[in-house]
Amino acid sequence: MEVRTRKLSRGEALNFLERGFAEAGMKVDREKVEAAVEELDGIIGWLTYCGYLRVGERGDLGRVVEEAVELARSEFESFPLQGSAGGTGSCSSRWLRAPGSGGG
Length: 104
Prior knowledge:
Protein name: ATP-binding protein
GO molecular function: ATP binding
Oligomer: single chain
Radius of gyration: 16 Å
Region (Disordered): 81-104
Keywords: ATP-binding, Nucleotide-binding
CATH class of the domain at 10-70: Mainly Alpha
C-alpha cells in the first residue's frame, strides 16, 4: 500500500495547526504557530506530531519542534542501509537536515 502526501503551503500549514488547536479547545499564540510552521516546513507528519504533543501538554511549540528533530535524527541514524559493507549499516547524521534547514 502506498500513501501519498504533499508538503503543505505556509498558509495551509498555519490553518492546519490553528484549526487543530481550536478543535482541541486550545488558544495558541499566532507567533508560536508561525514559528512551528517555519521550522517544520509544511511537512504534514511533523505538523501533526507537533499538534499532538502540544495538545498533550508535553511542552511549548519550541520544545515540541526540538523533540521532533531529535526523533527524526534518531530514526534516521538507526535506519539500515542497503549496499553498504556486509549489506547493512546505518545512516550518518551528516545526511540528516532538520525541518526548515533547506535540505529538501
